[in-house]
Batch of 3 targets.
Target 1
Amino acid sequence: MKKADKVYEISYEESENSRKILEVLDEEQRRAVTDDGGMALVIAGPGSGKTRVITYKIAYLISKGIKANQILLVTFTKAAAFEMIHRAQQASGSSLEGMMAGTFHHVCNYLLRKYASEMNLDRNFSILDDEDSKTILKHAINDYVEKNEKFPSPSIVSSIISLAANTQQSIDDVLNEEFKYFLFFADKIRLVNERYQKLKYEQSSLDYDDLLIYANDLLDVERVRMAEASRYLWVLVDEFQDTNKVQYEIVKKLSSVNKNLMVVGDDAQSIYSFRGARYDNIIDMSKEKDVKVYKIQTNYRSSPEIVNLVNKMIPNNIFAKILKPVKPEFVRPIVVSTWDSQDEASFITKKINEFINSGVSPSQIAVLYRNHSQSMDLQIQLSRSKVPFVMKSGVKFTETRHIKDVLSFLKVLNNPKDSLSWMRIFQLFSGIGKKSIEKIVEEDDFKKDPLNFVKHISSIGKKYEPVEEIFRNNSNEMKPSEIIDSFYESFYSDYLVMTFEDGTDRQMDVKRLIEIADRYEDINEFLSDLAITEQIDINRKYETDEEEKVTLTTIHRAKGLEWDVVFIISVNPGNFPSSLAIGSGKLDEEERVFYVAITRAKMYLYLCRQTTGSRTPFYGNRMQINGGNFDFIEKIPHSLYDHWKTN
């Protein structure tokens, strides 16, 4: 047998150190940690000690004489790898020097530089970040698309190419399944992709997806695969439910010699299909010959009352599980029926103040939502009440690019001398470049009466006709909601879809802004309220440590985190589950998102919903649907929660 083909024999001997390691584990964790080899799938429920299983697995292997450089640990973040290694060092008393641990991209980068010649790569190839890859993609688009021709933005084209790469599908398949709006551009997108790949190669550069794809192809070279797979006696993978097809193939190849592969994940928490994560990876692995499945079901996080509710809401997945609580009894979760989003925000703000006044740290309170825009009313209410909060779901609603675009349109109607807002508006229109904008704002007629000027701006060029049309149809005498709706319907809706990869979500954000604006009769009052909200946050920026703030976050950003007090807002069909999921029939993942949300709470869980329908003719993403199929709360037995109604 060749040296590279060496297969290690596993022979574990009991030691005092290994016994000490096992003493701190519960029976379920112990069974997984002491698994003696082969393929193992660990289904770890929320709050069950998933990280502990992996770190103590490493420590246990070290205590049995396995060297650190014979273990490969693959995680989804650098921070997770660092934390697990640090804990494993403490548990094992070993430095773990020489152990390979990191993200998939880290491991793939190492392999490609080591075997660059096998893939005809320069060993010093550059790795493109998202911004750099989109810059190259812009050049590729410019080679095939005329300057003023309608075409998806580089961000959207990048998402299409990336999803095709991570799911190993063709561009056409991805367009048919996920980007139907852009099917018309299929031929040019394929050409742009070919040009993009060529430009990267000419520059000796790889993007993040290339690292995975090239490494997977590299491991098809038998000499390389045997050499690398022989190095690792054990391969450990964290968050397996979030892996895509290429990543699963990579870990199978790296464990193909010694055949000791342990993956840890939770099928019920697979919520990243939009990034290419493949839920079926867990199912496929469970069907592998001689695979062992371990279930970790003891919940150390939540009260028994929360766990009882969680058990009724576990998605119908292939691995049945019943979480077992260990904490003492506390209080039941509460379903709160409010009148509308304003009422919902008022209730949550009041309760948060009550918790803080009773001694609960703001850092132990979180508000979760399905979509960033659903937090707008709450941001306003918390700011007015001077409650310190931090946004973990991105920038504040009014600071997002698309909302600032819309507000700029209102600002110039309210204050025609606002030159910054004028420049922002002009930049939205195809064919109007920086030099053209500078020339317009320096025109004497524009300076005298900007609004009158733009209502006749087509006289200086046909490319300005869309600008003229929009301003002819709007005036500062209209309600803010009417102005935004007119701007959105006549121009901005299509612009969002063609410009942003999450254009549909941004459309919902604008509709949300319209609903809020409908409460105001006057543009100035509406803009002032929003500006005051921003100013309050700026003034308080340095008054409170980051750790002492309430967290506002999307559920996807909350995954892996926990708080004493959790509010989940807008649990209404059309909001959560989203209207897109309902319309497409893709509710399985929405159920898993809800499951992730309710399992973040340790002590108090509030499920908030709104009892009214739309308050304006513009707000379209709330659905009043009869029957409980689309309603998460209707599926929960009434005996498991208390029901409150606001006055």
Target 2
Amino acid sequence: MKQHLRNLLFSNQTLGQTVLKNTFWLSVSQLLHRLIKVVVVIYAARVLGAAGYGVFSYAIASAGFMTMFSNIGIETILIKESVQKPHLSSNYLSTTFFIKLILLALLSVLIIGVIPLINKVPGVEELLPVVAVILVLDGLRGFGFSLFRSLEQMETEAGINVFTGIAIVVAAMMVLFFLPTPYYLAVAYAIGSALGLIATIYAARNYLKSLWSHFTKELVRPILIATWPLALIGMVGLIMLYTDTLMLGWMGTAQDLGLYTAAQKPLQFLVVIPTLVGASILPALSRLVNKNQPNFKALLEQALAIVMLIALPIATTGIILSSDIIALLYGADYASSVLVFRVFMLSLLVTFPGTIVGQAVIALGEQQKFLKYIVLGALTNVALNAYLIPLWGIFGAATATFLAQLAAQGIIYYQIRSRVGFMLLPKIGRIIGATAIIGIILIGLQQLGINIIVSLGIAALIYLPLLIIMRDPSISALKSILLPKRAE
């Protein structure tokens, strides 16, 4: 059993096991890293006070916005090309590294030179050089992570990510005890990030020997051509992400914003799930796209089924118990956000599969072709918000965003389905059936006045056994990977 677990979690054996292993480690990494940083946030907010922590947060947030000019998809292209062209992996690693250095230098100039021109918060400017260092260190560490992802060694990334989080916590706690100022808190973050980068360099040392000697000038243009659609998609996605909130701020009230963002918070947490699954399958999809189309199709179908296995019960539960969930999270004062919350729960059925299909687009190298649909979605979002917010307020903003996402993602979904030939509905028939049963049970429990926590617990306990009884293919595939093979 020990050997089976070791093989399951620390080696790449089969396609399904490797994807499952990578998803597990990315999930653990993100969860632990976020939990560790929450400790710093809570303690720093208490020690520095609202004003001091506000200065630190604003400096990080304003500088973080500038990363849109350095995060142009270089890492994604490195992963894709290294997997598809292993004989040129050293050349791609070296060339993308130098491009990344130039982008990080540009980021530093923007942070130190531009933010002071628009900043109105006292105390922020002295933090900016340190914040620039933090983001450069984080950018280099993230570049290292793309190497591990191309090798499908997400367990290494997870270990370094957790180590970095712990290093930041230790440094921050010491600083907050001896030198409790926003500036020295930023220094503590920089120290933790530096230690994380050192760990990354050490873990990748065998792959970095040729980093300085394999720069290939001829690859610069193809890399930039491949990345510019990703950069634009990222920028348009950022605009689409904030369109509803910004337009609601212009056309609504502060109370509207509070109700809207409260309903939106759970969604922002949940969309991490398909992002992690997508990151785990990208190397495999990139490897299979030109070598084994049937396996490419099968992996895409399986990934879509897995995310729908998660999205369908969450969306159904969220819609049925929306009033109780909002009351539990925020209290009776936020009852007006229930309808908005239902729309956001419904949108999970678009964003979850859309994220996975997006990875297929990258693996196929067709991001430039589909950019126009993302732009169309963003423009549709603006137009619908302008029309629906005056009519329906916060419900109109949520509906506009959902319809815009549905339009853009729907077109991309059907285009990729035509290209690859994958089928989703036949793969999730049993999942839909199990979700319907869960929905009926939840409605019954709600009518009986059963406590929401108890209802959620019952639904969670019943869902997996239902899928097992129904012999859902996704559960069968997971069982074949997780359970050790019996000796003949």
Target 3
Amino acid sequence: SLKYGSVIDNVAEITFIDGNGNKITLPKNIKVSKKILELSKKIDVKKFPNVTKNSSGFRIDKIKSIGDSHKIIVGSEGTLGIVLSIKLKIKDNPKKRVLFIIEYKSIIDASMNCIKINKTNPSAIEFVDKTTLKQINYKFSPKTKCLLFVEYDENIKSNEKKLPSIVTGKIVKNLKKDFEINAWWRYRDSSLHYSLKSIKKEERIPHIIEDAAVPLEKLSEIFRILKKLNKKYKTKSIAYGHAGNGNIHVRLISKNKETAIIKKIAQEYFDEIIQLGGTITAEHGDGLARSEFVKKQYGNENYKIFKEIKLYFDPKRILNPGKIITEKSTIIKNFEKF
């Protein structure tokens, strides 16, 4: 989450079986931890995405000491080992919360506004477009294009005073009771359901560009890119996501299911995301859909180090082959599964 971090930030220890059949616990295993730390010093950090959430490649950029070595396994998608157990960090639930629902007449305005809102240290800034908005039992302005859900779980009184002077949209709800807050969060949590329900079966295409993220100050660029691609390829799109992290989930809508066209859209979208300092996948991972783009994301030299990591843990390449490290186009396989 925006305030509490991703899974990788909240794991303390991992026990797994590597490709050699060895049972390893990190960071307890000093020999393996030292090897990972050694490899981490070889990477070109400038080629890594400048974002708060990233699930592409191996997260060796997170290894700053031996105590961080377990993070190499988090998000590795079963390509380095089979996880047996995980120790998680635990945080107390907040005692109080307040949730603001803000409507905007412009998606670009909403995305730009996130920069100022984020400086007030909210616990969440979430975005939904009209697809979700239409499902909410509330009478919004006919001109409303999107909503931001902004939540605070500390410094509540001061932020209640501060937020109205910062937002460029209209605050339509200031919710303080848990049952009301939870009810509105259910709308946001149902965005995937609403989006899939709204797309006709003949217009559903594989989710390739589904969860890129960019630096927050460039969030509006995601929507400009989508608008350009929709116009060029005669597609439509539904968007929702974790605006505070610059992470937007996209569902493309098109009757044209030609593999070549969908691949072109993915290539052009990912090229622009990478140029913005973003990641091709913030949460869902590379998988079949995006593994062939990992080298483009990180560059040749970092990709060589990724190969070293893979061979160190799985020299026979028996663990989830074709994911993250691949010399073949995997996007077609994703279409076949779809």
